[in-house]
Structure formats: C-alpha cells, structure tokens
C-alpha cells in the first residue's frame, strides 16, 4: 500500500523502497517533508535532514506530534504510513481539479467498456407503478374477492398469499409427512453415568432439550418471515440480484 502511494507521489525510489531499512525510512520522511508536506520552515528541517544521527528517532517523534498523528509513536511503520497518506491528501488538495478530471475520465472509460447485459426476465420490463399495472392488480383482486388496498403493491402481496395457500391446500402441502421414529432410547449418549435408569433419564432430557431448540428455531423463522412480509417489495430486478429497492 505504501509503495503505491509513493508511486502516486512520484517518489524516485518507490519500486525499491524497503520500510524495514532504517536509512531508507529516514530518507523518505525527509523527502516527504521537503517535497510535499512542508510543515517546517527549511531551517527547521535540519534534525530530520541528519538521517545518520542517533537522535533522529526523537526528531521523527516530534515531527509526528507536530503533524498531529493519531498513532502511537511506538508503531513507527504505522506512523510512516499515516505521514505518507497525509502527503497524498495534501498533493491531491493542491491540484484537486486535475485529479478529479483524471478520475472522471477513468470512470467514463470503465462504463463505456462494461458489457450491456439484457435480462430475459419479463418482470424486469414491467412498470409496477403504471396505471395499467395498478388497474390489472385491482381487477385480479375483484376476481378473487379480495378487498383492494390503497397501495396496489400490498394488494398484490395479498393476492400472492391467497394463491399460495390455495395451491398448498389442493396439493396437501400443508399436511405433515410421516417421519421414521428415531430409536433415541437405544442411542449412545457419548458418556456413561454408571446406572441404566440414569442413562435413560439423560436421554429423555436430551430429547426434551432438542425439542425446545427446534421450537425456538421455528419461532425465530416465523419472526423472520413476518419481518420479510413487511419489508418485501414485489419489484424484482434479477440483473442486480435484488428484491425491491
């Protein structure tokens, strides 16, 4: 990430920069201050300029504080990344119009090169708020003896619910299927309590616990369905993979 920012700033050693090399680290800080940030006066940059000094770290710490760097100085690499980010920000603000034009040109090129996907779903071509669609929904509601709602989309949801319930009752989809009984009393608990009666009682307790968990899951699913009923919108855009807006 630092290397890409340095390339954007035009740093001469961006390709070979090693953040773990203390000499390169210090040289970069000096270059950023001299060429981009310019927070200090030229005569006040001597401490940063003396990159071989044993006191350079203290000078860098003071520099970070003067720039109001929010990162603790113990994390020197993170501090440098923040300083580089500040330099990029300042460089952008100095010639915002130039960079804004470059970004807009890139966006235009990406849009022009993007393939146009035509959907084969007829629902994508419908206008769900047209008078024709609204009249069609109300006419269908009259046929099914459903009282129309002022919002025709809510009326459409009621029509869908009625049709689903009717189809379910015709095909006996609501009837429960017979399952195969699970031999819970013959199953292995995974541990032995040392007494047959206690083992059987533990199996019963486990069965009751599983029953409670399933009941809880059913109630959670019912809550989710109830919320989806409120928030769902019949306008579906399959191109974006979204339901509603």
From TrEMBL:
<dbReference type="InterPro" id="IPR019265">
    <property type="entry name" value="RTRAF"/>
</dbReference>
<protein>
    <recommendedName>
        <fullName>Carnitine deficiency associated protein</fullName>
    </recommendedName>
</protein>
<dbReference type="Pfam" id="PF10036">
    <property type="entry name" value="RLL"/>
</dbReference>
